[in-house]
Model the fold of this input.
Amino acid sequence: MKKSERVAGNVASYIDDRTGAAGWAKKNLTKVFPDHWSFMLGEIALYSFIILLLSGTFLTFWFDPSQQEVIYNGTYAPLSHVSMSASYASTLHISFDVRGGLLMRQIHHWAALIFMAAIVVHLLRVFFTGAFRKPREANWLIGIGLLTLGIVEGFLGYSLPDDLLSGTGIRIAEAIIQAIPVVGSYLSFFAFGGAFPGHVFIPRIYIVHVLLLPGIFLALITVHLMLVWYQKHTQYPGPGRKETNVVGYPLMPVYMAKAGGFFFIVFGVTAFLGAVASINPIWLYGPYTPGQISAGSQPDWYMGWLDGLVRMAPPLETHAFGHTISWNILIPGLIIPGILFTGMALYPFIESWMSRDNREHHLLDRPRNVPNRTALGAMSLSFMIISLANGGNDIIATHFHLTINGIMWFTRFGLFIVPPIVFIITKRICLSLQRADREIVLHGRETGRLVMTPEGEFLEVHEELTPEKKWTLTQHEQPAALTAPSEDANGTRSKAGIKGKVRARMSEAHVEQITSPTATEAHELEGGHH
Amino acid sequence: MSNEVTRFQDPGLPEHAHRKSDHDAIAANRAERQVAILFLLSAVGTIGTIASYILIDSKKFIYLPILGDTNAQQLALGTGLAASLFFIGIAAVHWAKTLMPDQEVIAERHEFRSSDEDRADFVTTVKERAGAAGLGRRSLIKRTMGVALGLIGLSPLVLLRDLGPLPKNDLSTTDWSAGVRLVTDPGDRPIKPSDLEVGAVAQVLPALPQGTERTLENIGKDAVLLIRIRPEEFNLDAERLSWTHDGIIAFSKICSHMGCAVALYEQQTKHLLCPCHQSTFDVTRAAKVIFGPAARPLPQLALTLDSEGYLVAKQGFTEPIGPSFWERNSA
Done:
C-alpha cells in the first residue's frame, strides 16, 4: 500500500469513527454532476459571493461607517483640509494610504457587479431551459430572493463611501420612501433618524450591509445548494440522458478539480479587473452635500433599469383633500418592479397550471422547443433593456450625439411597443428553428458538395445525421393543448368554465409547435427515394 | 406498412473516446509538466505580489497607455495576485481535463414521490399527532393562540419607534423667512445685485443667526439657485414678477421630483436641468416643467433688497420644497 493511500485510509476512518459518515460520504463523493458551460453561471455567482466576503472583510478593517464631520488630512492633496464625513475620509484613506487598499476596493466593487451579472444570466439560463419546473420551484423562489437582496445589498454597498454620487443615490432612495402614501414621511424620518441626510443612515446601512444581508445570503445560498445537491442537477437532453438518470463526472476528483479551479479563475479575473480597471473613483466626486451634484449621475448597472423607468415616467401627481400622491415615483419605483418580480416568482406555477403538468422534470428544454416561454423571456428582457438604456440616456446622448429628449420619447413608446414585437419575432424564430431541425433530421445536413449524375443533373449531397444527433433533435415531448370544458347542460358558463377557457387558451399558445419528425416519416421518405 | 408511428430511438451514451494522454505515456507526462508549470507560475505571482508590497514605493505613479496615470504598487499587487490565483485555477482545470478520468458515468435518479403507502401513513400520522394536541376540539386555545401569535410581531415594531423623531412639519419648512439675507455658498457673504452679471448663476443659502452651525440637513432644504437674466425675458404673472429683482430670480435648488440638486443651467435657453432624471425647468416661466418626470415647478423664492442694498427673502417659501410626500397640501 502506498503511503498516500494509507493516509487517506486513516483520515477516512478517523471521520467515520466519530460520525458514521462512511456510507453517506461514499455516496456523495462519487455524486455525478452533468457538465455544460451554462452550469458555470451559477458557480460564478457563488464564487463572486466568496470573493465579496473576503475583500469586504479586508475593507472593514479600515472603513469607519460614521457621518461625523472630519477635516481630511491624508495624502490625496486635492481634498486636503476639506470637511467631510468620516466614512468618506476613511474610504479615501483605504484608497490612498493603505497598501493594496484601492485594489481591494476595486476587487470588491467588480465582484459585486459580476455577482449581479452572474445571477441575472444564471436566472435567464434557468428560465429559458425550463429548469425551474417541478421539483425545483422552491429553488427558483430562493433565486428570486437572492436577486432582490443582491440589488439592495449592492445599492447599500456603493452608498457607504458617502461621496457626492452615492449620496445623491441615497437622496433618491429617500424620495421613494417619502412617496409611499400615508406612512412615507414617517418611514423616512425613522430610517434617517430625522431630516435627510442626518447622521445615522450610513452606520445603519453599514450593519445591514456587512452583517444582516450577508447572513441572509449565506443561509439562502446554503439552502439553494443543498437543494441542487439533494435533487441532483438537471441535464441537457442527448443520447443516454433520461429523466431517470444523471450523466456526468463524479464529484471526486474531476468535479472538485474543475469547480475548485474555476473558483480561482473567477477570483484571478476579478483581481485582474481590480488591478487595471478603475471603478467608482470616489475621490473625483468629492464629499456629499445635498446642494451639489455631478453631471452624468449613474447608479450601478443592476439599478439602471429602475432609474431608467423613473426617468421616463410621465409627470403625474395627484393633489386632493390636502394630500399628494406621486405617481411619477410610485409607478416606476415600486409598482412596476413589484409586478415584474411577482410575475417572475409566480411563473413556474402559472406554467404548470396552464399545461396541467404536475410531473417531475430533470431534462432541460432546448429553448426553441418551448417557443411561448422563450418568447415571453425575450420580451421581458427587451423591457428591461429598454429601461436600462433610458437609465443611461444622458451618457448615450453625449456619446452618440443624440438628444436626451429623443431617447426619452423613444423609450417611453418603445417600452410598450418593442416587447410585443420581440415576443412575436422570438416565437417565429423558435418555430423556424424547429422547422430547420425537422428538415435536417429528415433530409440530412447540406454538405455543399455537388455531384453530377450521368444524366448531367447536378445534385447536392446531403449527409445523414448520426443517430445521436437525430435523437437529440427529436426527443422532446410535444403535448397537445388542453381543451376547454364545454358549456354545462344549461348552456350557462360557470366561473370554472371561464377559468377553464383562459387555461385552454394559454395552453394552446404554450404548446404551439412544429411537429417533430419521426422515424416512420424518415423511413417513408427513404422509400420514396428508391 | 403499419400506421404505427415510431419515434427515433435513443442510441444511448456514445462510446467513450480516449484522450491522447490516456494511452500515450509521453502525452501524459507532457500534460503533467504543463500542470506543474502552471502551478509554478502561480507561485511566481505570489512572490511578485509580496515583492511589490515591500519594494515598490506606494506613492509612485506611472503612466501607462490606455490606463493613464496608475499607482505602480496597486497595479503590481493586483496583477501579481491575479496571476497567483488565475494560474492555480488553470492548472487544476488542465489537470482535470488531461489526467483525471474523463469517462462520463451514469447515476440513476429516483422520483421524489414516496410510495402511496408511505404517503398515506404520513398523512395519518400528521392527523393523529395534531389530534393529540387537541387543537381541533379546543377552539378556545386555537383562537387565543391566534390572537397571541398575531400580536407578538407588534412589539418589535413598537420598539423600533425611536429610530427617529416624527416628521411633524419639518418637510414643509425651511430656514428662509422675510428679511433673511442671501449668502454665498461657500463663503457666507451677503450679495448685492451688482455682484451678479446678466447670465450668471450662483448657489446661495440663508444667512443663519450668529452662532448657528449650518448642517447638511439645512442645506438639503435651503439650497437656492440665484439666476440673473434680462428683465424683459421674463414671462411671469404680476405676482411672480414682483418676486424678482431687476432680472434676478431665485428657485429652490432641490428638485421637486426626487430631491437631487438641480445644478445644470443652460444660459442660452435659460433652462435648468436636473442631472438625475433630466427634469427640465424654464427659468423665464417660473421654473415650469417643460420636460421629464417632475410634476411641479421648482418653488420660487421672493426677493427684495434690505436697507443696506443686500438681497433678502421677501418671505419664506410659499410651498414645501423638494420631493412630494403624503401630507403635502398644495398643488
Q: What stands out?
A: Residues 25-55 of chain B form the longest helix (31 residues). Residues 149 and 292 of chain B are 48 Å apart (CA to CA).
